[in-house]
Amino acid sequence: MTTLLNVKDLRAYYGQVQALHGLSFSLNEGSLTTLLGANGAGKTTTLRAICNMVRSTGGIEFDGKPLNNRSTESIVRFGIAHVPQGRGTFTTMTVEENLQLGAITRKDSAGIVADIERMYAHFPVLKQRHTQQAGTLSGGEQQMLAVARALMLRPRLMLLDEPSFGLAPLVVRDLFGILGKINREDKVSILVVEQNAQLALELADQAYVIETGRIVMSGKAKDIANNEEIRKSYLGY
Amino acid sequence: MELFTNQVLAGIATGAIYACMALAVVMIYQAIDHLNFAQGEMAMFSTFISWQLMQWGVSYWAAFLITLAFSFVAGIAIERILFKPLAKAPVLTNVAGFIALFAIINSSAGLIWDFTIKQYPTPFGSAPFLGSQLISTHQAGMIGVTVLLLLGLYFFFQYTRIGLAMRAAASVPESARLVGINTSWMIALGWGMATAIGSIAGMLIAPVVFLEPNMMGGVLIYGFAAAVLGGLSSPFGAVVGGFLVGIFENLAGTYIPGVGNELKLPIALALIISVLVVKPAGLFGRHIVKRV
User: Fold this and answer.
1) Is A125 inside any structural domain?
2) Which residue range(s) make up the domain with A45?
3) Per-residue confidence (pLDDT) for residue B291, from 0 to 100
4) Domain contains A231
5) Which of residues 160 through 179 in chain B touch A, CB cutoff 8 A?
6) CA dist., res. B47 & res. B40, Å (int)
7) How many domains, chain A?
8) What whole-number distance in Å separates Cα of residue A39 and Cα of residue A202?
């Protein structure tokens, strides 16, 4: 198995405040890896550092190429799609325009049209609403749209920041089912940050636990889910 | 009744110019969240360029197109040199930047072409339009060019990928970067287009107000009034606002006793304040409501 993303000794700063204290982890090609941890542990910051949306030092390599000091928009062109916290929906635009924006770096217009249809097959509700303003969608629908928008890039790696946030449990189940399917069928590697540890561990193959900007635990998702001590002390269930 | 129709049509003609200025202001406002006080001076300078070209013997439409291209490039240059470095600066720093730009352009124009009033040609002539006394061919031309421009812009923003990318960059910059849009260049492009639109307004209104370095002062205030009336967050609103302000200005000047030509400008200011008090987001502007 080849390493797709390799993060080494990552330190990130918000002004004077250091949020990550030398965090290292890696993600294999084709894997679905989850980063777990409490509020403020540094999960979101880790994702933002990968896309250079926060000042950071340390090594970030994607497919063997360093990502440091590249602009956010050029990192995206490597095939890294980031679904940010709060979904980042273009609320004043239509659902279909949101999908087109996901593919804005691509040149193959026929492929884009075909991919939009593929997204409508994945998420039928988006097809029903394709001319509607994205801001009028429900939270769950907006999350579906955010995932679909990210997939329109045809990414090799998808970064998801708390996709379950604010969604009803049934909707979350649905969404995680789709993520698993995308991972298996479309061969998209996924790094998902979650507070809902139980669900994320069911979905993922690898897991890392972060506490105050450091990795404190790593292993197969199954093992971590089965280890009662870790569950109680770090994951709270 | 004929006076009324006449004043409304004349209002639509000058309203077309206000609409262009308002649109230019709104485009930059959407991109960087600041009002460009120098928009009028930039338009005036462009108009002088076209005048100079014509003095050198270039035909009207060639000069028009060269000026458009010049304005587009100049707009991008101003953004890159002056406002890109100020992107994260406080509001007042930006305001100072705009005022400096205003003063620099105004004085340079005065230095190069002096402050005497100059005649500016119209390609449409000033005969009665289609034999009707209601509107002149130049006024009809102003409306025609503006309508073409608006249709072109609508098509550009609605149906081209770069237009879509520009809208995305203006509405949610962070998400735009995350789909791979270079938002910084989209802002520069917005400046280029706004400056070119302003130059069209300048070249169309110059035969009416005559060419001189302070020609756009009043026009820009009407443009601001139009933008505020329509809503600073809505390009469509800015255009509608432009036409409404043009008509309102003319009707008020004709029918409200004592207003006349002298008090037209205060009316625009009164309009700005009333709109801000009654409907701060303007007629078509959106209130930003956040889900919590």
Assistant:
1) no
2) 3-89+155-235
3) 47
4) yes
5) 161, 164-165, 167-168, 171-172, 174-179
6) 10
7) 1
8) 20
Whole-angstrom distance, CA of residue A47 vs CA of residue B100:
41
Rounded to the nearest angstrom, the gap between the alpha carbon of residue A175 and the centroid of all alpha carbons in its chain is 13
As a whole number of angstroms, the distance between CA B230 and CA B221 comes to 14
Domain-located, residue A120? no
**Separation between Cα atoms, residue A77 and residue B180, nearest integer Å:** 6
- B182 in reach of chain A (CB within 8 A): yes
Which residue of B171, B172, B179, B182 to mutate against A (max A Cβ within 10 Å)? B179
Q: What b/e sequence results for B126-149 when a residue is b if at least 16 CB atoms lie within 10 Å of its CB, and e otherwise?
A: eeebeeeebbbbbbbbbbebbeeb
**What CATH number is attached to the domain comprising A22?**
3.40.50.300
Q: What length does chain B have?
A: 292
Does A76 contact B180 at a Cβ distance shorter than 8 Å?
Answer: yes
CB pairs under 8 A between A and B: 63
Q: Which of B171, B174, B179 sits opposite A104 (nearest CB)?
A: B179
Task: Give the pLDDT of residue B287.
Answer: 63
For the whole model, what pTM was predicted?
Answer: 0.88
**Nearest residue on chain A to B287, alpha-carbon basis:** A92
Residue B168, judged by CB atoms within 10 A of its CB (0-12, 13-18, 19+), counts as buried
Q: Is residue A65 part of a domain?
A: yes
Q: pLDDT, tens digit, for every residue of A137-177?
A: 998 899 999 999 999 999 999 999 999 888 888 888 888 99
Mutate to test the interface with B, among A48, A91, A98 (most CBs of B within 10 A): A91
Domain coordinates in residue numbering, chain B: 2-216
Tokens coding B263: 């008090």
